[in-house]
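Request: Have a read of the protein record below and say how the chain folds.
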Amino acid sequence: MMASELQKPIKKNRGFYVKMRILHKGRQPEKSLFFRYYQWILWFSFTLYFLTSFFITNKPITLSKPRASGSKLSLPSRVLFESVNKTSQQPYLKNPAMFKDLKIFIYELPSEYNENWLSNKRCSNHLFASEVAIHRALLNADDFRTFDPNEADLFFVPVYVSCNFSTVNGFPTIVHARSLLFSAIQFITKNYPFWNRSQGFDHIFVASHDYGACFHAMEDRAIDNGIPEFLMNSILLQTFGVNYKHPCQDVENVLIPPYISPESIRKTLEKAPLTGNRDIMVFFRGKMEVHPKNVSGKFYSKRVRTEIWRRYKGDRRFYLQRHRFTGYQSEITRSVFCLCPLGWAPWSPRLVESVALGCVPVIIADGIRLPFSSAVKWSEISLTVAEREVGKLGQILEHVAATNLSTIQKNLWDPAVRRALLFNDHMQRGDATWQILTSLYKKLNRSYRRSRAPSQ
């Protein structure tokens, strides 16, 4: 019990005890003044003692650095929770000098290209939903948005192609993406002169799917189909990226993170114990095929996830689950290391969830290119394990836990890192949309208006 809970009862009982002893001895009339004075001194002393004890025992608790104890590590959850709340309450920040009056025009397309898809609530919350989030953030970015296309540097085309969910498995299907995008461009060219004057050179699209601008979930099919010819001149905001030559990134592009709802992160951290230990050393929940050969004949995750399951399913250090669980983010808050192996594509939403919830991402995807590398120092907040080294995963993570884990976690818990990977309806300084605008500003050589402006 705290001193505050004991203060009143103890003070009352102690006073009663003193009073009874005095009565037992008998009080002489000539000493009554002395005893009154003595009683007052005792009351004052006890009161001072308990007040002092209260403030000493209830001083703020200093959060200690993370420390290893088997597989349990302490987490300053309060720091994570408060930083997310602080971020969510930040006011919208006006166009800074660094963007030098960057102006973006947003096309007002018929509702069948975007708004109608929102009738399904999943459209704005699933892993490909950055196409919705970016549109919303730009609509609210008054200092970057222009309603006069003649003063625009860049043109944003808001088409939601990822909200067509399969009736068979519930996953997003993008078989209609090419035709929907082509139809939108036809509408634009019919009603505006700006596409034709640059052949789409200063126009922006979002391709938040497995293989980005190739608009297909299977790599071989994506490569065979290639990037649609009508998009080859434009700027693509896409989640797919590798650090080697690949046909699906052979277009002007900005690498963006997959969408994770900042509200879901906030709610998860609210429920997380503020001083709890991370009792799971290594965590993964997701598709891990026992027989990884898909019906299409291809091996899912290049067999990496299957190998993880076979080698570590009985290892007490590893918490591996193959089935879906809507509250799995709570498991991330309990974990020290979160595995982020490739799926069909190299990237994974677990990259963002792990960072946002304070779990060290363990990236297993050879050649992956990660978003916003100038703002997020990935080498300082994550681990990279080669696909061929999966068999040594336990040994590698044990070594990190015994050496530099505290340093990695300290870097990971920087609020600026989390902010850079999350999209907000109202853009905030340093968030994902802010990072996109920073990247777009570097592409202003594509602005038709600026290229025609008279030199100073």
The mean pLDDT is 82. The longest helix spans residues 32-57. Residues 288 and 306 are 5 Å apart (CA to CA).
